[in-house]
Amino acid sequence: MWWKSAVFYQIYPRSFADSNQDGVGDLPGITQKIPYLASLGVDALWLSPVYPSPQFDFGYDVADYCDIDPLFGTLTDFDQLVATAHHHNLRIVMDLVFNHTSHLHDWFKESRQNRRNAKRNWYIWADPGLDGGTPNNWESVFGGSAWEWDELTGQFYLHSFLKEQPDLNWRNPEVRQAIYAVMRFWLERGVDGFRMDVVNVYYKDAALRDNPLVLGSGISKGLRSYDRQRHIYDRDQPEMEQTLGEMRALLDFYQPPRMMVGEIMGEDTGIAARYCASNQLNLAFNFEFSSSGWRPRNFQKIVQKWESTLGVDNWPCYVLSNHDIVRHVSRYADGPHAADQKAVVAAALLLTLRGTPFLYYGEEIAMRNVKYAREQIQDPFGKQFWPFYTGRDGCRSPMQWSGAENAGFCENAKPWLPLAPDFAERNLALQQENPTSIWHQYRQLLAIRRAESALQQGEFVPLQQRNVESMVFLRQTADETILVALNFYGWEVTAHLDQPLPSGEWQTLYNTLAEQPAPAYVPQTLILNAYQVAIWKRKP
Ligand code: NOJ
């Protein structure tokens, strides 16, 4: 299937390219950049939401699922984007946010009119609890109770995120049918798949039971109250299996084949894997790299665990950065120089693993996370938790296209978020001119992945199980073997392999810096230079 061998690239539309000079990126801006994205060598684009929205959560609060927000353009612009992308062999994946709508969606406006309204039961309404307070102890991910009192109709409604994002009632078959109609609407417009927002949160316990508290969490002050609970009743309910099965059947009806990738909230990758089994999601994101320290042992453990949890019938999917987390170069950096070198090691890892990689815009030039002052913060999550947590704006700064005004993102307009301070030295135009830049490394790695079927389909065989001081592994099919060696550190590392390398002659496909010698190797030992990345192919 195409989505197994594809490399996806996430676009945060507000921050990618502004064609109409209002300081916010838009669809025609993305369309203009399609030739660039095709030349980079990615295969599919995931767009964060572009639907009409009051933008309380920057588009993750949808007021109409079947239109485009004027901020981003029109449906005609969207059709143009899809046509241009397809012309360049790029696929388009839409973000579907179905746990909740905006409070300004017509469905919710009706639902809150009165208790007898036909759409009342499209959302989760409840009477006060016995003590006259909220119906239960559920907390919002964005802070505070998940229940909001509605004065007019004298009941609470549930919102797992902002109060401007009321949760849909997935137990209502009318809701499910309306949502399936939305999916068909976009599939018939030619989109190739969907990224499903917080897909394990749709269903909640029908009896609205209290979540138990995490033992001992009361004393950890840093924790959000959401993190002090075990979410056994407000997410991961058994009904989701059937719903995902129905969605999958709907998708599988279309040709050429479509796909869906799910965002699963929570740390437990076992739960994420469950949503891939028996014809549910095609892919589930694994977010463990986002909390892993920069140690090869950690990465290898995550990969081996994900491989074994998913089993042979399901396909892995990895991500280093996205619009909700600190950019990985900044997470892993401990000095400006090392940051760039680590960016290449991380890219090589992501692009040589068995599984579908998702890149995040700007990652290809190692854009850093930006530190914004309090008055610049836009993210509601950042505003709520400042100064303990400054929010998600830092990874959403405008794309750094060039050294021109506003980095070429917009002209004569104030960008919705200030540019990163380093854009004059770190931008695409400069990196395109420099053959040793990170951008060229990404491009080369993408080209190798595209050319080598063993990198797309081959088995993942780690060559060190003890003393994992670097990551050395094979990607192997019946006919081809690729060897990958990654040194995560700024010093020479000797990798002692648990098994001899398959015999034969090896051809170098990639070696971090051209002037560096290929690593010396004897059958069971590899000596890797500082931050060295090397990829070899066994000659047939
Ligand atoms: C997950 C999205 O990735 C995030 O950006 C958003 O705020 C929440 N879902 C709520 O929709």
Explain the overall architecture:
- The protein is of the alpha/beta class and 540 residues long.
- Among the domains are: 106-158, Oligo-1,6-glucosidase, domain 2 (Alpha-Beta Complex), CATH 3.90.400; 458-538, Sandwich (Immunoglobulin-like), CATH 2.60.40.1180.
- The protein has 15 helices and 19 strands.
- Helix 6 packs parallel to helix 7 (239-252).
CATH superfamily of the domain at 458-538: Golgi alpha-mannosidase II
CATH architecture of the domain at 458-538: Sandwich
CATH topology of the domain at 458-538: Immunoglobulin-like
Number of helices: 15
Classified by CATH, the class of the domain at 458-538 is: Mainly Beta
Overall shape: it is globular
Distance between the termini: 26 Å
Name the poorly predicted regions.
none
Structural class: alpha/beta
Task: Give a quick account of the main beta sheet: strands, pairing sense, barrel closure.
Answer: 8 strands, parallel
Strand content: 5-15%
The count of strands amounts to: 19
Small ligands present: 1-deoxynojirimycin
* Average residue pLDDT: 95
Please compute the radius of gyration using only Cα atoms.
24 Å
**Strands across the major sheet, in which order?**
9-8-7-3-2-1-11-10
Estimate the helix proportion, in percent.
25-40%
